[in-house]
């Protein structure tokens, strides 16, 4: 376990010192520029998840079959998730060591892993089924919402949690 | 009362000082403001993409409006209310940034775009909705809307960097 922690910290130090980490950190406009992509992808990814969940619980989008919406939105979920991961990684790399010791960031990554796995392994599978049970539809929608909310709230909290850097690689 | 007077009057209200000094007000309302992007901006971008014939081409735009309208209205109200709350914490500093003024201009233009559509092409939706491809005017509306909303987001991010540190 300790070997993993050391490896992770080394990775964070490498990110901090990388050309993109230093480049974005030293630039006045690059950080907000990357943030805009992160926010736009958030809007579209969030909308996809919400549309599928509303359709699953049959509160919204009742004129459409959930399986049809799922098929239309799946590429957008994959695409925007990719944009979020790349832009998120770039933002992270500007203060990777700080993030390493930030509990909000750790929580966000945990929720992100759970939310991504749940989306592809469970939500999109149930949404494909012809007639999933009411219990399945509701539990998928509620769990999906809570997991992604965890990612969002964790992300918002990162900036408000101040951490002492465990190692600094100037 | 001039606009500058209004900004200073607002800044001097008790409401403004509560918003400014409260430890939780700014994080709370900014979090709601950002997360509501998923409902308001996300749905809007999907409508724009539909108008551009990029997504859900088999689905009539009229039906999409009907399905999304309650969430768009609700989301917009949340965005405006939380936006006003964040603004009133420090109205003078917000107004002093070029990004806030740009954001308000883009926001106004985006709303004009919606109104123009509603009173022109949107009024005659029956004539073109459901055809294999949307008319050029509808595509232009979608593209203009997308560009303006992206500018609103970009300017909004700019405000955070232009404001004096707390």
Describe this structure in words.
- The complex is a heterodimer of chains A (about 170) and B (about 170).
- Chain A is mainly α.
- Chain A has helices at about 1-15, 20-25, 30-55, 65-95, 95-100, 105-130, 135-160.
- In chain A, helix 2 (about 20-25) crosses helix 4, helix 3 (about 30-55) runs antiparallel to helix 7 (about 135-160) and helix 6 (about 105-130) packs antiparallel against helix 7 (about 135-160).
- The model of chain A has no long low-confidence stretch (mean pLDDT about 90).
- Chain B is mainly α.
- Chain B has helices spanning about 5-10, 15-20, 25-35, 35-50, 60-90, 90-95, 100-120, 125-130, 135-160.
- In chain B, helix 2 packs across helix 5 and helix 4 runs antiparallel to helix 5.
- The model of chain B has no long low-confidence stretch (mean pLDDT about 95).
- The interface of A and B includes residues 44, 48, 72 and 160 of A.
Structural class of chain B: mainly alpha
Report on the biggest sheet of chain A. Answer: none
Shape category of chain A: elongated
Portion of residues in helices of chain A?
over 70%
Number of strands of chain A: 0
End-to-end gap of chain B: 28 Å
The oligomeric state is: heterodimer
What is the N-to-C succession of helices and strands of chain B?
Answer: HHHHHHHHH
Helix share, percent of chain B? over 70%
Task: State the low-pLDDT regions of chain A, or none.
Answer: none
- Average pLDDT metric of chain B: 93
What do the pLDDT scores of chain A average to? 92
- Listing every helix as H and every strand as E from the N terminus to the C terminus, the arrangement of chain A reads HHHHHHH
Could you name the ranges of chain B where pLDDT drops below 50 across 5 or more consecutive residues? none
End-to-end C-alpha gap of chain A: 27 Å
Q: Give the strand content of chain B.
A: under 5%
Largest interface: A-B, 27 and 29 residues
Q: Helices and strands in order, then pairings?
A:
The complex is a heterodimer of chains A (170) and B (166).
Chain A: H1 2-17, H2 19-26, H3 30-56, H4 66-93, H5 96-100, H6 103-128, H7 134-158
Helix pairs in contact in A: 2-4, 3-4, 3-7, 6-7
Chain B: H1 3-12, H2 14-21, H3 25-35, H4 37-51, H5 61-89, H6 91-96, H7 98-119, H8 125-128, H9 136-162
Helix pairs in contact in B: 2-5, 3-5, 4-5, 4-9, 7-9
């Amino acid at each position: 376990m300790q070997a993993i922690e050391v490896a992770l910290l080394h990775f964070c130090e490498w990110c901090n010192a990388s050309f993109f980490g230093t480049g974005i950190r030293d630039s006045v406009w690059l950080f907000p520029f990357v943030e805009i992509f992160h926010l736009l992808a958030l809007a579209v990814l969030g909308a996809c998840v919400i549309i599928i969940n509303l359709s699953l619980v049959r509160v919204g989008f009742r004129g459409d079959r959930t399986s049809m919406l799922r098929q239309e939105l799946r590429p957008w979920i994959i695409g925007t998730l990719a944009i979020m991961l790349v832009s998120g990684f770039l933002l992270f790399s500007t203060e990777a060591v700080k993030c390493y010791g930030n509990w909000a960031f750790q929580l966000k990554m945990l929720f992100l892993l759970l939310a991504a796995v749940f989306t592809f392994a469970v939500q999109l599978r149930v949404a494909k089924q012809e007639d999933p049970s009411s219990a399945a539809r509701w539990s998928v929608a509620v769990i999906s919402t809570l997991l992604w909310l965890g990612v969002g709230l964790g992300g918002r909290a990162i900036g408000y949690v101040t951490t002492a850097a465990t190692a600094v690689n100037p | 009362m001039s606009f500058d007077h209004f900004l200073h009057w607002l800044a001097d209200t008790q409401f403004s000082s509560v918003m400014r000094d409260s430890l939780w007000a700014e994080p709370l309302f900014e979090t709601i403001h950002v997360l509501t992007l998923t409902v308001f901006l996300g749905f809007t971008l999907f409508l724009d993409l539909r108008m551009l014939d990029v997504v859900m081409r088999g689905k009539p735009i009229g039906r999409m409006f009907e399905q999304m309208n309650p969430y768009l209205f609700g989301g917009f109200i949340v965005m405006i209310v939380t936006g006003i709350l964040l603004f009133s914490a420090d109205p003078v500093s917000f107004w002093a940034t070029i990004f806030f003024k740009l954001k308000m201009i883009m926001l106004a233009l985006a709303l004009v775009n919606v109104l123009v559509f509603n009173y022109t092409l949107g009024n005659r939706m029956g004539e073109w909705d459901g055809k294999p491809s949307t008319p050029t005017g509808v595509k232009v509306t979608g593209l203009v809307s997308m560009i303006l909303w992206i500018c609103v987001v970009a300017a909004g991010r700019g405000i955070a960097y232009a404001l004096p540190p707390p």
